[in-house]
Amino acid sequence: MICTYHNDFVGDGGLKRALGPAYGRLTRAFLSAVDRIVVASPQLASYSRFLPDYASKVRVVPFGIDLSRFQPAPHERMAAALARYGAAPHSVRRSVRAVQRR
User: Fold this and answer.
1) Could you tell me which residue, 31 or 12, shows the higher pLDDT?
2) How many angstroms separate the Cα of 74 from the Cα of each of 27, 77, 78, 89?
3) Buried residues in 5-27 as b, exposed as e (16+ CB within 10 A)
4) Using CA atoms, how far apart are residues 16 and 23, in angstroms rounded to an integer?
5) DSSP-assigned letter for residue 80
6) Cα atoms found within 13 Å of the Cα of residue 21, Cβ hemisphere only
7) Is the Cβ–Cβ distance between 39 and 82 less than 8 Å?
8) Single pTM value for the model
């Protein structure tokens, strides 16, 4: 079985205080049972409270977009799509944090 791991249960108040010990036990039991754990960054694999104990199972698969297949829509096409669905142009934001080629 393969799982994707997105983040630890963080924070100090309310729900974490009440569920923290049980959550930790359940998380460890689950991670022990899977064959592979997929994360999107080496930072999550390193700094997670749980994942270093399962390092041999962890594989980093970064999020990415194949830019040879997918390109941002031209402005006119995007404006037409927004108008078709009744969305204001400022209500949709496109952003790309970083594109890294290997």
Assistant:
1) 31
2) 44, 5, 6, 14
3) beebeeeeeeeeeeeeeeeeeeb
4) 8
5) H
6) 1
7) no
8) 0.61
